[in-house]
Design a protein that fits this description.
Blueprint (H helix, E strand, L loop, with lengths): L2 E6 L20 E5 L13 E5 L4 E6 L2 E13 L8 E3 L7 E3 L5 E2 L3 E13 L5 E2 L6 H5 L11 E5 H10 L5 H7 L24 H12 L2 E2 L3 E2 L5 E5 L3 H4 L7 E5 H8 L3 E3 L6 E3 L7 H4 L12 H15 L3
Parallel strand pairs: 1-3
Antiparallel strand pairs: 1-11, 2-9, 3-4, 4-10, 5-9, 6-7, 7-8, 12-13, 14-15, 16-17
InterPro entries: HNH_nuc
Protein name: HNH endonuclease
Keywords: Endonuclease, Hydrolase, Nuclease
Length: 314
């Protein structure tokens, strides 16, 4: 299982006043210490996503973590002794406590020993500017409303979000987890099943071939192997093969006809294609064209019913 972390780096824009911050180079390394929640949970091989509250900066994999010790200055509100206050660049006094509301220019200070950490990950860095917004990144975390600077995230969600941007291929993203992208084998074999078959379907198709020849009523001549006997009504509901109740259609056009994506205007006899098919020239060019097969009055009755079912509210 791959672990992932969302790591905040804000540089000079930081507002928390409880410490002096950390010297980071987001493309190469990330620093923190034992005063930070989750400080001991990151490990070599974990995926890290760096952000600045507004958007993703980049992603990588931790190659190494260096530890040490040092004395660290901690700052606190002189009124309530809490370290939860903000430094304000445009207001005076310069600091305001989030806990008690006190304002002050000079916070209290104490020095204490801490364990330091430095994670290096520059070797596999992937720039992520413009890929994911801050809101999208928060949604990937175990606790989306967390305010921590080091937040555990779901690798599967991060992976899928990166792929969805279309800016990284599957191999690049899977490489972040230390796993090569590979296709999942599709299970094969056979099984027995009871199915309902259409009685007389072969004879119905043979009659249409005799009547219509080897041509699709919509697109024209085609090999018999790709032509299907399309009922102009729901055979599943009636279970009957009506005279002049079908046309030979190419398989793909048969499917689109059944779904109502292609219909025949009963007033003009011209093809009407769903606007969503405009993205596919082979289907878009059919719009407004007549059928290549001369219709009988019986055909028109069934086609009018099909039209009313799929175009009445259009």
């Amino acid at each position: 299982m791959t672990n992932a972390w969302l790591l905040l780096t804000v540089g000079d824009a930081r507002q928390h006043g409880g410490n002096d911050g950390y010297e980071d180079n987001p493309r190469e390394y990330y620093r923190w210490d034992s005063t930070v929640p989750n400080h001991a949970r990151l490990a070599v091989g974990d995926v890290v996503a760096l952000w600045d509250k507004r958007e993703l900066i980049g992603v990588s994999v931790i190659d190494s973590i260096e530890t040490g010790t040092e004395d660290k200055a901690r700052y606190f509100c002189p009124q309530c002794k809490k370290a939860d206050f903000k430094r304000r660049s445009r207001l005076t006094p310069a600091c305001r406590c989030n806990q008690c509301g006190a304002t002050f220019d000079t916070p209290g200070q104490k020095v204490e020993p801490v364990t330091t950490y430095l994670a290096r990950y520059g070797r596999r860095w992937v720039d992520g500017r413009g890929m994911l917004s801050g809101a999208q990144l928060r949604a990937l975390c175990d606790s989306p409303n967390s305010q921590l600077s080091m937040r555990p995230a779901r690798w599967e969600k991060l992976r899928d979000a990166l792929l969805a941007t279309g800016q990284l291929n599957a191999d690049a993203v899977s490489g972040l987890s230390g796993q090569q992208h590979r296709r999942v084998p599709i299970a094969g074999g056979h099984r027995f099943a009871k199915v309902r078959t259409r009685v007389g379907q072969a004879a119905f198709r043979a009659a249409l071939l005799e009547e219509q020849g080897q041509q699709c009523a919509i697109s024209g001549p085609a090999p018999a192997q790709v032509l299907e006997a399309a009922h102009l009504y729901s055979y599943a509901e009636s279970g009957e093969h009506h005279d002049f109740g079908g046309l030979l259609l190419r398989r793909d056009l048969h499917t689109l006809f059944d779904k109502g994506r292609i219909a025949v205007d009963p007033d003009t006899g011209l093809l009407d294609t769903d606007p969503e098919l405009d993205a596919y020239p082979v289907y878009a060019e059919l719009h407004g064209k007549p059928l290549v097969f001369e219709l009988r009055p019986e055909h028109r009755v069934w086609l009018a019913a099909h039209w009313n079912a799929h175009r009445a509210d259009a």
